[in-house]
Amino acid sequence: MTMLSHAKARINNRLARLVGTTPFRLLNQKPMVSFTFDDVPKTAVTVGAEILKEYSSLGTFYVAGSLLDSPSPLWTAASGDDIVALHRDGHEIGCHTFSHRQTCDLDAAAMAAEIERNGRFLRSLDDTIRIENFAYPFGVAAVLRKSQLGTMFRSSRGIFPGVNSGKVDLQFLYAIPLISGQIDCDAIDRTYDEALRCNGWVVFYGHDVAASPSPYGCSPQLLRHALEAASRRNIQALTMSQALSSAGA
Ligand SMILES: [Zn+2]
């Protein structure tokens, strides 16, 4: 990203939190947690999904079709077969833009084309994949694209840190990094304790799950801690779709 594009993204993200919001009151009966993985690195599937399974939990994996099977300096990417395997195991497949371009760089037609292409790509992998939820590439929301996303998705997740509770903007859901350099076990515990106090919905986001993760991923131990600490507090891990249904959305 250029400096100008960075500045545009930052301003868009700030505005998107404040402007064009349609508040929705979450009606969940008890606190919830969702584990989400973006892009999708191979280890999110081979390690992350396996650890979720140990806790009988399901995750949400936000796919940008162009990134699958493509080389990355950060990690080995998942394949189309990996995504199909996740889907058949009951995990939710979510939507990024196909090209992974940030939404504030797209006009309405380009945005629609990105989503159409990603949806078509995912249905070509398995035509029973249903896309209901979106995550902003780079976590950057676009003030002008939010209402458009609202017509296509039940929710859009950013990376603005916070626990979702009470009145939320479904097209600007907060999320907490499950990223080894950004959160530790104590901070995860404090996040859950806050969720218990406010009957909140914690949405974690991350990428790879590896012993030596990228700067955007986490270790298997951190993911295990997040699952263990949730289960100790009786906080149920749900996919984004399941959590939204529990919240009456
Ligand atoms: Zn991404």
Order of helices and strands: HEEHEHEHEHEEEHEHEH
- Average pLDDT value? 94
What percentage of the residues does DSSP assign to strands (E)?
A: 15-25%
Architecture (CATH level 2) name = Alpha-Beta Barrel
Q: From the 3D structure, determine the CATH topology.
A: TIM Barrel
Number of helices: 8
Q: How many individual domains?
A: 1
Question: Could you give the distance between the termini?
Answer: 35 Å
Largest pleated sheet: 6 strands, parallel
- Find the count of extended strands (DSSP E, 2+ residues): 10
Shape: globular
Kindly report the name of the CATH homologous superfamily: Glycoside hydrolase/deacetylase
As a percent range, the share of helical residues equals 25-40%
Bound chemical compounds: zinc ion
Structure classification: alpha/beta
Radius of gyration: 17 Å
Contiguous uncertain segments of 5+ residues: none
CATH class: Alpha Beta
